[in-house]
Design brief:
The structure holds two protein chains of two kinds.
Chain A lengths: L1 E2 L2 H15 L3 H5 L6 E6 L2 E6 H7 L12 E6 L5 E3 L4 H4 L6 E4 L1 H8 L4 E2 L3 E4 L8 E6 L4 E7 L3 H6 L5 E8 L2 H4 L6
Parallel strand pairs in A: 6-9
Antiparallel strand pairs in A: 1-2, 2-3, 3-4, 4-5, 6-8, 7-11, 9-10, 10-11
Chain B lengths: L1 H18 L12 E3 L4 E3 L6 H5 L3 H21 L3 E4 L2 E4 L22 H9 L9 E4 L4 E4 L27 H27 L17 H13 L33 H17 L6 H33 L1 H30 L1
The chains are: A alpha+beta, B mainly alpha.
Protein name (chain A): 60S ribosome subunit biogenesis protein NIP7 homolog
Subcellular location (chain A): Nucleus, Nucleolus
Family (chain A): Belongs to the NIP7 family.
Chain lengths: 180, 346
């Protein structure tokens, strides 16, 4: 376990800022305690200082996971967000998409979102903007990337993709062993 | 009828004569021949009238035919022979010099030995290929396979007086030969590299007569880290400087360091990232424009039906222009609005 280097921090922030914009500041600068990012087995964990100090007692090879896993660095040093980061992305999300009850299941099985499943979408969402996906009852379901901007979404036919799937809470069941 | 037959016969005769023209061609000036290149130069003046006439092609063809006939006549003057049922003529040497197609090859850059030989004035001596071999009593090649006086084929070697008696003289000889071959190959590569102006192979720490200061410092730094501990316990001289360009080591911040510093650093990174964003987001601006247009057309569409009737009363001209534009906008854009309303309700 180690702190992120400057380069790694930058790549991760760039990815996070696609979903929550400048709200990253609120993750770093928290009034309720000190929180930090730590790298372990190529994964980035968001941990409170208290838990981090406790975790130092555990040897590196025995430690599987601490705090919240935000994502991992690929072998090419890109950052991939994991669904576990959703709890922190959802409250600060700038662009949101709400799904109709009929479209929910398809999304939770890992499919892209069609126009037919789209309930609401934040105004002036740009194309390829990172969005957080909610159900109509405002339960965060996952996140993705807008395939079309809001204006285009209105015009396209019902079977065209409007949001590309990236992660959904169905992965807690489908990819249980991957999410540490 | 008789006249007709005569006409036909005369014509056939004429045609025959035309086909088999005489081999004798009359020219004012004789042609100049270069039979080696199968070339003839006609220095007679060209009949300008024939060139300008309507039968220019025929004129040129007949001229070419006559001149070709002259070349062939000239060829037949040479002695002929029969080779496999074919009559052939041996052409004389060509006299017209022709330019070569490609530029002449560049001279090869001299090797190191050639440079040295030129400097010292050493001439190459031609040696005979075959030499007399006393042992086999025959002429053999001077070098290569089955050469004369082949010392690798000796079954016995005398151990020199001052040599170690346990040393294998055969192995020693083989090794020496292999080294000579390797050295020659190395020199050849060096010559190639020198000719192409590449860095000469064998760089690094090869022994050179005069080492430069940088060479020496590099040699020292290499020697210092070439210990079992990779130079960790190597002592330094009193005023010795740390070696340069020894590579960078990865270094990470401590796991539990100063948390406020870490936070400040991350906030600084965020600040830099923010400042690098473009002030005007083009896609966002375009989106905004599109949205405004949408809302405008929507409000117009909403107002449309009520106003239409009123306007219609006012003036025919205004109605025609306005009505058309609205009709267009209304069709596709009205629909999504309705759909959206429904989706919201669900």
């Amino acid at each position: 376990m180690r702190p992120l280097t400057d380069e790694e921090t930058k790549t991760m922030f760039e990815k996070l800022s696609k979903y929550i914009g400048e709200n990253i500041k609120l993750l770093i600068d928290r009034p309720d305690g000190t929180y930090c990012f730590r790298l372990h087995n190529d994964r980035v964990y968001y941990i409170s200082e208290k838990i981090l100090k406790l975790a130092t007692n555990i040897s590196r090879d025995k430690l599987i996971s601490i705090g919240t896993c935000f994502g991992k660095f690929t072998k090419t040093h890109q950052f991939r967000l994991h669904i576990t980061a959703l709890d922190f992305l959802a409250p600060y999300a700038k662009f949101k998409v709400w799904l109709k009850p009929g479209g929910e299941q398809s999304f939770l099985y890992g499919n892209h979102i069609m126009k037919s499943g789209l309930g609401r979408i934040t105004e002036n969402t740009a194309q390829y903007q990172g969005v957080v996906v909610y159900s109509m009852a405002d339960v965060p379901l996952g996140f993705g990337v807008a395939a079309k901007n809001t204006q285009e979404c209105r015009r396209v036919d019902p079977m065209s993709i409007v949001v590309f799937h990236q992660a959904d809470i169905g992965e807690y069941i489908r990819n249980e062993d991957m999410l540490t | 009828m008789a006249a007709c037959i005569e006409d036909v016969l005369a014509k056939a005769e004429k045609d025959e004569a035309e086909r088999l023209k005489s081999i004798s061609v009359q020219k004012e000036l004789d042609l100049e021949f270069d039979l080696g290149n199968l070339l003839a130069c006609d220095k007679n003046s060209v009949d300008a009238h024939g060139l300008k006439s309507t039968k220019k092609e025929d004129f040129l063809r007949s001229l070419a035919r006559d001149n070709t006939q002259l070349i062939i006549n000239e060829i037949w003057k040479h002695p002929t022979e029969r080779v496999e049922e074919v009559i052939v003529v041996k052409l004389p040497e060509a006299t017209t010099p022709l330019p070569r197609e490609k530029p002449p090859p560049k001279p090869k850059p001299p090797t190191k030995w050639e440079q040295f030989a030129k400097l010292k004035g050493i001439q190459k001596k031609k040696k005979t290929n075959l030499v007399w071999d006393e042992v086999h009593k025959e002429w053999r090649r001077r070098w290569g396979y089955k050469r004369a006086k082949d010392n690798t084929k000796e079954w016995l070697i005398e151990v020199p007086e001052n040599a170690d008696p346990n040393e294998d003289q055969f192995a020693k000889r083989n090794k020496a030969k292999k080294e000579r071959v390797a050295k020659n190959e190395f020199n050849r590569l060096k010559n190639v590299a020198r000719a192409q102006k590449l860095p000469i192979p064998g760089q690094g720490l090869v022994p050179t007569p005069q080492q430069s200061k940088s060479d020496l410092t590099r040699a020292i730094s290499v020697a210092k880290v070439s210990t079992a501990s990779a130079g960790k316990f190597q002592e330094r001289l009193p005023h010795e400087k740390a070696p340069k360009n020894t590579g960078k080591k990865r270094k990470f911040q401590p796991l539990i360091g100063n948390f406020s510093d870490e936070r400040q650093k991350q906030l600084d990174i965020l600040k830099v990232m923010d400042s690098k964003k473009p002030r005007i987001d083009m896609t966002k601006a375009v989106n905004r424009q599109m949205r405004e247009e949408d809302s405008e057309s929507r409000s117009n569409a909403r107002k449309g039906p009520g106003k239409k009737g009123r306007r219609g009363n006012m003036s025919g001209k205004g109605k025609g222009g306005g009505g058309k534009g609205k009709g267009k906008g209304k069709g596709p854009k009205g629909k999504p609005q309705n759909q959206r309303g429904k989706a919201g309700k669900r």
